[in-house]
Design goal:
Blueprint: E1 2-3, E2 6-11, E3 14-16, E4 23-28, H1 33-36, E5 39-47, E6 52-57, E7 60-68, E8 71-75, E9 80-83, E10 88-92, E11 97-103, E12 109-117, E13 128-132, E14 139-142, E15 145-151, E16 153-154, E17 157-158, E18 167-174, E19 179-185, E20 189-196, E21 198-201, E22 206-209, E23 212-216, E24 224-231, E25 235-242, E26 250-252, E27 255-257, H2 260-271
Parallel strand pairs: 1-24
Antiparallel strand pairs: 2-23, 3-4, 4-5, 5-12, 6-11, 7-10, 7-12, 8-9, 8-11, 10-13, 14-15, 15-18, 16-17, 18-25, 19-24, 20-23, 20-25, 21-22, 21-24, 26-27
């Protein structure tokens, strides 16, 4: 069992944008995407209605976790849903997604959106969406806490989120003083984000607090790996992992492709109407 530790860690900083995109921070900054492979970026956003109206995507997947408020999703294939705190939406943009992500009524919505790369062979797959409601993600209790599994096989259960590439996503809650050993696939690149509280992580016992993020060490030759977490105070942390794709990747605007020509083609296809009609109710 490979013992995971902190590789890098940082405090997320935030930009005050005003209305309607009130505040934003990069949990995973897109200029470090090669380090995060297969993840491209993670944005933390507070926003009102009108921030993320109809827009296109191609070449990647998103995993959106609702921290607070109500998130309304609309797509141009007739999809419509409203998610609450603790719910997750997965989107495979594939070849041509066109959708909107809005706050409901006068809510101030608070979300985390992770961009997950697709390998070249899957960038032209059919667009799809999947909601994972809080109560649909299995929970495993342990002494002093619990782990809620949204994706992948963790703690003997499998999360319902059905990604096109191998990933895990878990939410770990800990009481003060509780210790938990989180087992991950050894060949996965992984990171965590602290939603609440303070904890010590890994063999180095690095102390992380709310709004801090960290990448983890990993050993692709090991069969399995384990990350030790010990809560200093009441703590909630999200842990993500994914198998690296290791392809040249260009992220530009709403598209993630392998070459600049493919990015230009995506813009042409969008402006030529190939993504379909706008996403409106």
């Amino acid at each position: 069992m490979f013992k995971r530790d902190i590789k890098n860690h940082w405090q997320v900083t935030y930009q005050q944008n005003g209305y309607p995109h009130v505040q934003q921070g990069w949990v995973l900054s897109p200029d470090r995407k090669d380090e995060f492979d297969p993840f491209i970026l993670m944005a933390e956003d507070w926003f009102k209605r009108g921030t993320f109206s109809d827009h296109p995507h191609r070449g990647f997947q998103t995993i959106t976790y609702v921290i607070d408020g109500r998130l309304e999703h609309i797509d141009n294939h007739g999809g419509h849903s409203i998610l609450d705190a603790g719910d997750v939406q997965y989107m495979n943009a594939g070849w041509a997604a066109r959708h909107a992500e809005e706050a409901v009524d006068d809510d101030l919505i608070h979300t985390l959106q992770l961009w997950l790369n697709l390998p070249k062979r899957l960038k032209e797959t059919t667009t799809s969406y999947q909601n994972v409601l809080l109560e649909e993600a299995p929970v495993v209790a342990f002494d002093g806490g619990q782990v809620r599994v949204y994706a992948g096989e963790i703690a003997g259960v499998t999360g319902p989120l059905d990604s096109l590439v191998p990933i895990t996503m878990s939410e770990v809650s800990l009481a003060p003083g509780a210790t938990y050993r989180h087992v991950l696939p050894a060949n996965h690149n992984a990171f965590l984000y602290v939603l609440a509280g303070e904890l010590e992580v890994g063999s180095s016992q690095t102390r992380l607090a709310k709004t801090m993020a960290a990448t983890l060490t990993f050993d692709e030759q090991a069969e399995n790996s384990e990350l030790e977490l010990t809560a200093v105070s009441r703590t909630k942390v999200l842990i993500y992992s994914g198998q690296p794709i290791r392809e040249e990747t260009i992220a530009y605007g709403p598209f993630v492709m392998n070459t600049e020509d493919e990015i230009r083609q995506a813009y042409r296809d969008y402006h030529d109407g190939k993504f379909g009609p706008p996403a409106v109710l």
